[in-house]
Amino acid sequence: MADNRVSIVRYETPYESVKKAVDLCGGLDHLPAKAKVFIKPNIVFWTKACEFPKWGVITTSRVMADMIRLLKDRGIDDITIGEGIVSDPKDKETPAHAFETLGYNKLGQKYGVKTVAIMERPFEEVDLGDGISLKFNTDILNSDFVVDLPPMKTHNQTVVSLGIKNLKGTIDIPSRKKCHSADPEKNLHFHVARLADKMPPVFTLIDGIYTLERGPAFDGKMHRSNLLVASPDILSADLVGSRLLGHDPSEVSHLVYAAQNRGRPTDLSDVEVVGEKIEDVASYHQNDVSYCQEETREMPVPLARQGIDGIFYRKFDDTMCTYCSGLNGLVLTAIRYAWNGDPWDNVEVLTGKSMEPTPGMKATILLGQCMYKKNKDHPDIQKMIAVKGCPPNPKNVVKALHEAGIEVDPNLFEQAASLPGFFMAKYQDRPEFEESFFRVE
Ligand code: SF4
Predict the structure, then answer these.
(1) pLDDT tens digits, 190-226
(2) Is 70 exceeded by the pLDDT of residue 1?
(3) H/E element, 110
(4) Is 375 in contact with 366 (CB distance < 8 Å)?
(5) Ligand 1: residues whose CB is within 6 Å?
(6) Looking at residue 323, what is its pLDDT?
(7) DSSP 250-278
(8) What whole-number distance in Å separates Cα of residue 279 and Cα of residue 246?
(9) Which CATH number fits the domain 5-287, given the four candidates 3.40.50.720, 3.40.50.11440, 3.40.50.300, 3.30.930.10?
(10) pLDDT band (50, 70, 90) for residue 316
(11) What does each C-alpha distance from 167 to 150, 232, 424 come to in angstroms?
């Protein structure tokens, strides 16, 4: 069976649908007997503080449990689930809470599956060529076979986040920062494209029971799509997944690089699709919020619609890494609530590692130590308000915004862990959004 075969299956029944997706593409044909298998779900975000929407954000426990049962049916006993949830590296409670809530401990009792919090495990440096090296989790590198289980989602920096991008959760924090490099050539996409290159054989099953627009997190728009996409070839799975989300892979930079590195096209001409037809089940998923760029303001369109003026919150770029990204949405929410109808006085907010100040601004907030280091002596800054630190301390962010005349509510930052819970309201009274998909009975 060709390795570039990709199955597309409608999710209908527990276990049977996953089995069909796996069997149609021959996904476990190369699974060695008695293999040590590492399963990589996607738990991009977690909080112990509240229940939050997980549909399309996090791999369903339904697909996880079905996949484990299939592996057990094939006589596999050594199975490890591993994920590198981003929290304070010293925080062991958040990953443990995630694994318990998602039912992974029950899977442990039932099937003898182990779980590892990647941030608590050793890493090994891996040379990915062209001067790039990243540190990967030792458990995945030393397994015999990887089962990659990403949810089917779009991403505001990488357009889509599927099989290859999901492996970013297996590298350490300094490597994640390295991926968001300010080098215009060896950029985020260049790094992400290589994440699967030195892995053991990978089987990819994209969990599209729920799909996500404007991902990667809980503030995106979730859909019940009932799709499963599977392939023994990770790039083929991602090319098909991208098309299903309405994005031509030739416009997804990390897929273009990954294809080039393998001497393959992005047009699916060497991919055999079995099961459902792409055109019958694809639906366009927007990958990012639109931005308003006008003479007196720059900000996401929803804020501009509110009438907010006098602030230039520059559109974040690919160089902004995980910790700053997590803070970015909160800062924008706080600005939204702080607006009282009076325009602010030409305040510019810069993020990531590459941005430069615009001449004529009255105040420039440099968010994060990268921005401070880059622009601290910049001649175009009239009044510099720096929030040093990596990640920037939320209290200092509040102070900086106040200094710029933006009276954000400090309570929003203090209660940040509970804010994701407010997004649950969007999915209330919509029975297709079932929390039970994230439990193991
Ligand atoms: S300050 Fe922000 S952008 Fe810079 S390395 Fe830290 S998290 Fe990344």
Answers:
(1) 999 999 999 999 999 999 999 999 999 999 999 999 9
(2) no
(3) helix 104-111
(4) yes
(5) 177, 320-321, 323-324, 352-353, 368-370, 390-391
(6) 86
(7) GG-HHHHHHHHHTT--SSSTT-EEEES-H
(8) 10
(9) 3.40.50.11440
(10) very high
(11) 9, 15, 28
Nearest CA to ligand 1 atom 4: 370
pTM of the model: 0.97
The residue whose CA has the least distance to atom 5 of ligand 1 is: 177
How many Å lie between the centroid of ligand 1 and the Cα of residue 375? 14
pLDDT for 3 equals: 80
Q: Give the residue extent of every domain in the chain.
A: 5-287, 291-408
Going from the Cα of 214 to the center of ligand 1, the distance in angstroms, rounded, reads 22
Q: What whole-number distance in Å separates Cα of residue 347 and Cα of residue 335?
A: 12
| Contact call for residues 228 and 70 (beta carbons, < 8 A) | no
Whole-number percent of the chain with pLDDT over 90 = 96
| Cα–Cα distance for residue pair 173/256, rounded to 1 Å | 25
Please check the confidence at residue 38 and state whether its pLDDT lies above 80: yes
In this predicted structure, the answer to whether residue 87 has a pLDDT above a threshold of 80 is: no
Tell me 423's DSSP state: G
The DSSP output letter for 136 is E
Determine the atom of ligand 1 nearest the C-alpha atom of 352. 3
Return the structure tokens found at 337. 């609530």
Among 87, 157, 324, the mutation site with the greatest number of ligand 1 atoms within 8 A of its Cβ is: 324
Among protein residues, the one with the nearest Cα to ligand 1's atom 8 is 321
Confidence class for position 322, pLDDT limits 50, 70, 90: confident
